[in-house]
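User: I've been trying to design a sequence by hand for this structure and keep getting stuck. Would you show me what you'd pick, starting by listing the structure so we're on the same page?

Assistant: Good idea, let's start from the same input. This is the structure you sent:
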């Protein structure tokens, strides 16, 4: 997994947690921390979370072999 995918995954998790807070408690953490839903910084964060979700769509289409994080230098499997 590349650094961009890891960052996108973290942003997607943050977005999911925020949606959970909205759904269960009617509390928007991003808006509360950054001055409301209409503030520029909140809109940037919402946009980044949305882009991160699009980047993570690629994870749905990877095979199990491609998802494995290799900890040692192994030869690539022959296909």
């Amino acid at each position: 997994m590349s650094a961009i995918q890891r960052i996108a995954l973290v942003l997607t998790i943050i977005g999911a947690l925020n949606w959970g807070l909205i759904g269960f408690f009617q509390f928007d953490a991003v808006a509360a921390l950054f001055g409301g839903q209409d503030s520029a910084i909140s809109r940037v964060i919402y946009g980044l979370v949305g882009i991160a979700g699009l980047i993570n769509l690629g994870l749905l289409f990877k095979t199990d072999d491609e998802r494995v994080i290799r900890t040692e230098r192994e030869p690539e499997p022959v296909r």
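That's my pick for every position. To get oriented when you compare it with your attempt: The first helix runs from residue 3 to 25. The chain has one domain: 3-66.
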